[in-house]
Design brief:
single chain; 73 residues; mainly alpha; 4 helices; 0% strand; flat
Length: 73
């Protein structure tokens, strides 16, 4: 189990790593990448249509109120 200081240091290192990845991506030169045509864009489909392993159903928050005697049961 981590102490508060160790956990804080671990999270700070993770934040710094993620910030460096974002900065590196922002500096990426995409000038050599061809632009997609309208036909290619029309053929794009969500990844879960091609591979059902990528499917993640939408989650909804639900609140349920129960009588105290039902919970005690």
């Amino acid at each position: 189990m981590f102490t508060w200081t160790e956990e804080k240091n671990r999270l700070n290192k993770k934040k710094a790593r993620i910030a460096a990845e974002i900065k590196a991506f922002k500096n990426t030169d995409f000038s050599d990448c061809p632009e997609l045509t309208e036909e290619q864009l029309a053929q794009l489909k969500p990844s879960h249509y091609r591979n059902l392993a990528n499917y993640k159903p939408i989650k909804k928050t639900v609140n349920v109120r129960l009588d105290a005697d039902v919970i005690e049961w």
